[in-house]
Please model this.
Amino acid sequence: MSEPMDYASAGVDIDLEGSAVASLIGALSKSVRAPGTPGAPVDLPGGFGGLIEFGDNLLALATDGVGSKLQIATALEQWGGVGIDCMAMNVNDLLCVGAEPIAFVDYVAVPKPDPAIHAALGASLAEACRLARVTLAGGETASLPGIVTELDLSGTALGWLPKGQAITGEYLKEGDVLIGLPASGIHSNGYSLVRKIIEHAGLAYTDTAPFDAEHPARSLMRWTEGAPTLGEILLNPTRIYCDPVVDLLNAAREGETFSISDIHGICHITGGGLSNLLRLHPSLGWDIHTPLPVLPEFAWLQTAGGVETREMYRTFNMGMGMVVAVAAEHAETILSWLQERMDGVAIVGHVDNQGHRVTHAIEGVEFSHY
Amino acid sequence: MSEPMDYASAGVDIDLEGSAVASLIGALSKSVRAPGTPGAPVDLPGGFGGLIEFGDNLLALATDGVGSKLQIATALEQWGGVGIDCMAMNVNDLLCVGAEPIAFVDYVAVPKPDPAIHAALGASLAEACRLARVTLAGGETASLPGIVTELDLSGTALGWLPKGQAITGEYLKEGDVLIGLPASGIHSNGYSLVRKIIEHAGLAYTDTAPFDAEHPARSLMRWTEGAPTLGEILLNPTRIYCDPVVDLLNAAREGETFSISDIHGICHITGGGLSNLLRLHPSLGWDIHTPLPVLPEFAWLQTAGGVETREMYRTFNMGMGMVVAVAAEHAETILSWLQERMDGVAIVGHVDNQGHRVTHAIEGVEFSHY
Model:
């Protein structure tokens, strides 16, 4: 291969996206809702979830879609996991501010309503609600033949937390311990690059995976028998971290052995990979010296696409979907607590004070911009 | 013209949409959130907004998109109103359950990010937040070249109300007075039919409107000088009814001259037109004997498309975007209160008990199914 593949060459222009979003945000004005009234905005760095005041509590909203992962689901007519992806992308963002997700609404856009697709989405959303422990409080199905050529699925999650207990990153400090939570697969980011690599490799999604997909910290959602297909691995639903993270937050708030003030930061590793950590604090650094095992699909994608290692870690979760930064003195207690509830949780690194950057056990995997 | 146009012939199969949505809903299970806990669902007929428990209050979510009206905005590269449409479709639904909208998130899907579109959307959403008095608590811009061919815009609104004060329709009774609130135009429903009629008429959206667009109860958002163009009329933003309806709800809850128990039902007239009224009660009827003036664009569309009158009232708002059903003994007080705050508000009819149907001053405009 002459040119290594990267996310930009797969058709995603991150700079253009950034300037488009900046244009939208720049046109917005201050909220009309006065401080102290229901709905008044609460400023928080990182921006994983939008927080608003509500009496003695805060409410949080997160909105996101499944993105181009849907194109693989549609190509295979397998929509059983995409409701879980849609839920996960939203509720995992809410967890990052310390909110407990409580409700969800979905938005489905299709060229033409199709009861088979909708039944599959309904089943997938029902399972997602169970995993995230939320109420499906509504939804919209739009038929837009002039706008969409195939299924688009997005959603919005609502969460809450007691006022004064948001996880803001303000207590992060040098020496804090980073606990990594394993991913179930590629989750819902980087699929433009994934699709380009599969195409380049001349493989079909129905082909048996050309690698061993076994990994102790995840199971696959299967619809074929025998060895897993590429499609089954690529469509494995995004992990929903409500269990155990909501329980961790509640245990911390009850404060028997550790308290909410020991949980200094929570990061959902989405598009941008490890560089998402930089969103949690304006000056501290993040040293991932003992990363979680890389899931086999990432190793294969890197080789098949000739993707540079740094680009892999800037595009994909590489096996770690969430990071919890905790006070060093309670790290072992919190680690054990999490390990009892989820396989594959481990200490992956520390917060340092040597500049606003992410470093990694692999030399060259370093980020100083989100 | 040989065949009169209708909504179905414009490519919208309402039955298919209904069965697709039924498939999705049928696959859903009961909420995992127990009664009395934050997020537990609250059953309510009508289904305008999804209500959940939250301590001494209820929270409501509504999610909806702008639909094919966006195709006209994109054709004209005029996105200044679509943020208002998106907001209106959601917050107006929240008002129907008696909720005050407090926050909003937008979801933008584009084939490729375009700072010009995003700046226009940002300005439009900022104005929408001002009109609806909500905080923009987040948003997502997705680049989906394989799924969308042009802009899709949807959003989710969050509202709240004190527990026990939801407008459920349970107090509706024969003799209740229907107060109509004027529409600003076509709002955001029926655009598949609108676009088909314009095409059939051989007109361009940039053509001067072939009718007098003046109407005392609305103003137009303009971007040309001289006589209004068809595009300016068709894209006029959906009216946001927060002012005066939130204030009406608050005045009623304070209860100086009328109380919240006098407001028996609120109906957002969306797709389905007047048949939306049937969603408010399982058995009562709705007699619209003194309708609001029809906006000139509806009269022209009907003639140009050869659309049957009943079909017009089942597809469009016909000049009335919201209906408030109130106790007869306080109807004049509430009417005056609303008239002081919005031009064109009037008593349009009464609730009757002669079957579950909508009747209208125009014979044949009658609906017994939503």
Chain A has a mean pLDDT of 93. Residues 33-162 of chain A form a domain with the 60s Ribosomal Protein L30; Chain: A; fold (CATH 3.30.1330.10).
